[in-house]
Each structure stands twice: as structure tokens, then as C-alpha cells.
Design goal:
The protein is an alpha/beta fold. The chain contains 7 helices and 6 strands.
Length: 168
């Protein structure tokens, strides 16, 4: 099965390949249609859906996959959280699924709430580059117990449910 991934980020492509091991993943640079740093569940899911639809349209693959990381406040708790959502479509049907949510440390959250993007904030704090294309904030904030790729695998696998089982 040919699957178009709405990103050229190698972590997102690898997560899709792990979630859909029988698929051939084709990265496609597409716009999310949301701010670079999506805020809230709605914006983050919309970005994932937009990426999936645009990737499918650009390639004619069997499925389009969109993955979006964002930040959100979560009811019943304090702080700002990193959130991850994925969307999968065949052009008619949709699947949407989320990955883990991790509370951001207060200094990181403050910078993100002031308008900075999470990836560059993490790069700055760690004095590195492209943490989003390696372990991601998820890896850094969990002491490598999880990483960005494994977090995104769960989001993509959850979104792919309608396409890998007849339960829907």
C-alpha cells in the first residue's frame, strides 16, 4: 500500500512506517494551514487533517497521513502540554488519533506562550539543533523513556484504525 505522509520530517515518516508496516511511505512537503506552533487540540487536529488531505491530493496514494504536534492547556490540571495528533484519510473516510501528552516545564511553557515555537525553544535550551527531528521534546522530557517517533507511532496507529480493521 502506498501512503503519502504530509511532511518531510524523517521522524514523522519513520513513525508512519512503524504504524503501517505493510505500507510504503512517501514524504510530501505540504502546508498544515495552521500556525507553526498550533495551540489547542482543535488547531492541532486541523493541521493533521489538512496535511493528510494535501498529501493524498498531491500524490494519489491510497492513504494520506498527517501528523501535527501542538501545545494545549488541559482541563483539570495546570500547565501547558505538548500534544500530538494524527489523521489518516483515503479521500472519503477519516481516522484521527492522539499520542501522549506531556506537561512542559514552566520555563519552556512561558516561552511558548510568549509566541516561540517549541522545537526552537528546546534547541535553544539544549544548545543543539533539530531536536524535533531526533528524540523530540518527548524524549528530552521523559529522560528518553519515550521519544518523538514512538509517541507519533501511537497517534498514527490510532488514526489508522478505520483502515486496518473492520470494526469501524
Amino acid at each position: 500500500m502506498r501512503v503519502a505522509v504530509g511532511s518531510e520530517n524523517p521522524v514523522k515518516v519513520a513513525a508512519t512506517e512503524r504504524a503501517l508496516p505493510d505500507a510504503s511511505a512517501e514524504p510530501v512537503d505540504v502546508a498544515s494551514g495552521v500556525p507553526e506552533q498550533p495551540c489547542g487540540r482543535d488547531q492541532t487536529i486541523t493541521g493533521a487533517r489538512n496535511r493528510a488531505a494535501a498529501a493524498l491530493e498531491a500524490t494519489g496514494a491510497e492513504l494520506g497521513v498527517g501528523i501535527e504536534g501542538g501545545v494545549a492547556h488541559v482541563e483539570a490540571t495546570e500547565g501547558l502540554f505538548l500534544i500530538m495528533w494524527a489523521a489518516v484519510t483515503d479521500g472519503d473516510r477519516w481516522g484521527v488519533g492522539g499520542g501522549p501528552s506531556l506537561r512542559l516545564p514552566a520555563p519552556v511553557a512561558a516561552r511558548v506562550e510568549d509566541g516561540d515555537e517549541l522545537g526552537p525553544v528546546m534547541d535553544d535550551l539544549l544548545d543543539t539543533e533539530n531536536v524535533a527531528e531526533r528524540q523530540g521534546a518527548a524524549g528530552v522530557l521523559t529522560g528518553e523513556r519515550i521519544d518523538r517517533e514512538s509517541s507519533l507511532v501511537h497517534a498514527v496507529a490510532s488514526a489508522a484504525g478505520p483502515f486496518v480493521t473492520d470494526r469501524y
